[in-house]
Amino acid sequence: MRVGLFVTCLVDLLRPRIGFAALRLLEAAGADVVVPRTQTCCGQPGYNSGDKQAARALAHKLLDEFQDCDYLVAPSGSCAAMIRVHYPTLFADTDDAAAMSRLAARTYELTDFLVTIAGLQTVPGTFAGRITYHDSCSGLRELGVRKQPRTLIAKLPHVDLQEMHEAQTCCGFGGTFAVKYGDISARMAENKCAQITATGADAVVAGDLGCLLNIEGRLRREGSQKTRVLHIAELLAGETPEST
Amino acid sequence: MKLSSAQFKHTARKNLHDVRLQQALHRLQERFVGARAAALTDIDDLPRLRAAATEIRQHALTHLDVYLEQFERQVVASGGQVHWARDAAEVNRILLELAARYQVRKVAKSKSMVSEECGINEMLAANGIEVIETDLGEYILQLAREPPSHIVAPVVHKNKEDIADLFVRHHHRPRTTEIAELCREAREMLRPHFLSADMGISGANFLVAETGSALIVTNEGNGRLVTTLPRVHVAITGIEKVVPTLEDVSVLLRLLTRSATGQSITNYVSVLTGHKRASDLDGPEHFHVILVDNGRSQLLGTELEAMLRCIRCGACMNHCPVYQNIGGHAYGWVYPGPMGSVLTPNLVGLSEARDLPNASTFCGACAEVCPVSIPLPDLLRHLRVRQLEQGLRPRRERGSLRVWAWFAQHPRAYAWASRLAARLLRAVANRRGMIRRLPLAGGWTDGRDFPAPSGRTFRDLYARRTSS
Fold first, then answer.
1. Which chain A residue has the Cα nearest residue B362?
2. Could you read off the pLDDT of B53-105 as tens digits, one per residue?
3. Is A187 on the interface with B (CB under 8 A)?
4. What is the ipTM of this complex?
5. What is the pLDDT of residues B186-208, one digit of tens each?
6. Bridge partners, B217 (sequence order)
């Protein structure tokens, strides 16, 4: 099973550890993992800013890079949804429609892949303590990722999952929204952080780095140093800040 | 209604710091979100009902000309008259002609968002005709001289203390904050107006083509009084509200009231057909319908057509985390929230409401609850495409987009640039690994830290790992 890891631009730049965690989990699931070297971005920033042309160019580039993979897996519901849901729309009624639909059909968000396709039984993570899980919007609503991360979390014997209120409410990240409408975005993050803190969790976990940056940035600005902010891949792989 | 969508950012910021408004918005969310979820548990097969509702609305739009003409024929057959209005000015001209024809001095109105679109109240008042809003929320807003901030609960931004103060000022009665007392007081004030109004103006939730009926869904009973007591009833609504049959309405109603207020049915569902007949005890002597286009027909056959399926339940705004935090007035026109962010730029002009399509995280909560499956984030995204095509985005934004697109398509340059960025961002972080202030990203760092990268990109670390 040849799996192409799409690292995502945020992970590449800001938190490489998540990429290595994803790699470790995919290998634990028995995948033969390749990481195409020329990969950059799925095109979502352009697509959501109204620039379809740039999005299409990046879709073509990504299609070439992952052509020979049985699956494409990304540690992000948002990027996976861009490819799985939006690429076919972008290329509807063009000569590339079929190729893009085939790429879309073999693209998965990491936890979805590990549960639905790979049937991963044991996870290497060693975290002990209480966590709470934030459902990132794109993964949740566009890909139906809700049970998959929880199924995997349940395999960690020393983790107690305490659900927060409104786990499915947006944290306020929204890509460029967080900069363009900073005060609305920060208020949404503030509301999210209040729900996180109310659970008394040692760590908040989510499947998208964008949300995590937003949540961590807000927690730290509020002076809260205690709650750790982890990507689901880091939690499951045991690649957390003090383990590396 | 006065357009102020251009002040979106300013009003939003002000509203974020308005404690009373925040409390009111919190109450709205608590009440409507929970009530909707509870009410929908009655429905055995929600996806199927939703698909049926979507299909009914879409079918009506696909054959809009046919059903509107059928509707007109049925209205005429029941003794009424249909007027076609291209825009707000035509609505107002038709209304004034009717007012003159029937010697109208006083108008009683039930709730109608289309009438807000057209600025009917101001126009009638300017022509010496007294207008009384009779929906409790709209009545309060008329006293306060404020626009609605929600399409179902127009006065949601006020609390009972605000309303008590307003009533004292206008009614000169002892102050009370008891809700039942406030309602009684409003009822006593309104009753004489119902009896003395010459014309009643209503909106319509649906127009039924097979019967020529205007259908309204209300809770207060004022809609019945407005449409039956005055000599003349005028229903004003958008052309997209037509559906083929009463059977269709029964499907849509099951979703409309549950989605809007969490009720399995509203207190009143009024099917208004024609004028008073010889055997009727009451009813208007004259029945008129004004069908308003005002920009709607431009959406037909475009990527945005699905927006016309909207049945105005307000669920999208009730569930929108942006609306929940900034309230309806920030959107600056009649329709707030996600549906307003699609409609407003289309009805008033894309350049007049530049923020609205952009002020969304695309979280998708709106599309998830929409009873007629309108893909609201996709429609907002399409408006962003149009904004970019028409040069309506700021120069700096367009410039950054071009720079990003170039680098993302050139992997070697991209690797170099991200390596540099990772180091620079690391260098400006504090000892906890947080960046407190970032030039050009003040929107982020005003309210949050930015977690700094570790200093090396995945690409570089992976290359090192695989080569060793």
1. A174
2. 999 999 999 999 999 999 999 999 999 999 999 999 999 999 999 999 999 99
3. yes
4. 0.97
5. 999 999 999 999 999 999 999 99
6. B269
DSSP-derived pairing of the beta strands A2-5 and A71-74: parallel
Domain count, chain B: 2
Residues in chain A: 244
- Give the end of a domain, one of B297, B331, B353: B297
The 3-state DSSP class for residue B381 equals helix
- Same domain for B270 and B146: yes
State which residues form the domain around B93: 5-297
What value does the mean pLDDT take over residues B45-59?
98
CA-wise closest residue to A229 among A217, A221, A243? A217
Q: Using CA atoms, how far apart are residues B27 and B261, in angstroms rounded to an integer? A: 13
Alpha carbon B423 to chain centroid distance? 46
Closest-CA distance, B390 to chain A, in angstroms, reads 11
> Alpha carbon A173 to chain centroid distance?
13
Same domain, B293 and B418: no
What pLDDT, on the 0 to 100 scale, is given for residue A244?
Answer: 43
Spatial separation of the C-alpha atoms in residues B425 and B429, rounded to whole Å: 7
Contact at 8 Å (CB) between B147 and B2? yes
Domain C-terminal end among B233, B268, B297? B297
Nearest-CA residue of chain A relative to B367?
Answer: A141
A220 and B432: CB-CB below 8 Å? yes
pLDDT at A83 over 90: yes
Domain assignment present for residue B278? The answer is yes
* In chain B, % of residues over pLDDT 70: 100
C-alpha distances (whole Å) from B140 to each of A224, B126, B159 are 43, 21, 11
Q: What CATH number should be reported for the domain holding residue B142?
A: 3.40.50.10420
SS3 readout for B262-295: CCCCCCEEEEEECCCCCCCCCCCCEEEEEEECCC
Q: What is the pairing mode between strands B213-218 and B206-208? A: antiparallel
Give the mean pLDDT of chain A. 97
B100 occurs within a structural domain: yes
Residue at B364 is within a domain: no
Where residue B371 falls among pLDDT bands split at 50, 70, 90?
A: very high
Domains of chain A: 2-117 (3.40.50), 129-243 (3.40.50)
- B454 domain residue, yes or no: yes
For residue B433, count other CB atoms closer than 10 A to its CB: 15
Give contacts of B 362-421 with A, CB under 8 A: 362-365, 367-368, 378, 381, 384-389, 393, 397, 401, 404-405, 407-409, 411, 414, 418, 421
